[in-house]
Every structure is written in structure tokens, then in C-alpha cells.
Write a structure and sequence with these properties.
Structural class: alpha+beta
Number of strands: 4
Helix content: 25-40%
Strand order of the largest sheet: 1-2-3-4
Shape: elongated
Distance between the termini: 36 Å
Number of domains: 1
Length: 61
């Protein structure tokens, strides 16, 4: 099962890894590889937002 999150126009595919008991996300639609994870739905959503914010700061530099 996978789901899609959206933040600031960016999208991420989220899957649950039963073996590691975590949610794993990957930002889609960009040329860079941007991945994140969390142990809860709220945590993975927050990590996605942080990943995008950090990515945008890096792109500005």
C-alpha cells in the first residue's frame, strides 16, 4: 500500500516497511534523490516537510 503526500507543490510516495516498522518516503518528480522516514504518520509527514524545506534552501545556494 502506498500513499501520496503534497507540500509546496512537491509530491512524495509513502510506503510502510513492515520489516523495519517504519514509513518510508521518496520525493517524486525531481531529478535528485530525496528520501525520508518516520515511525508514525505524523512523523513521516513532518520529515517530508523538513526534507522539502531543506532541499529548497540547498537549491537557493
Amino acid at each position: 500500500m502506498s500513499s501520496i503526500l503534497e507540500y509546496k507543490g512537491y509530491h512524495a510516495s509513502i510506503e510502510y516497511d513492515a520489516e523495519d516498522n517504519i514509513f518510508v518516503g521518496e520525493v517524486i518528480g525531481i531529478t535528485d534523490s530525496l528520501n525520508f522516514h518516520g515511525t508514525s504518520v505524523d512523523e513521516v509527514k513532518e520529515m517530508f516537510k523538513q526534507s522539502i524545506d531543506n532541499y529548497l534552501i540547498l537549491c537557493k545556494k
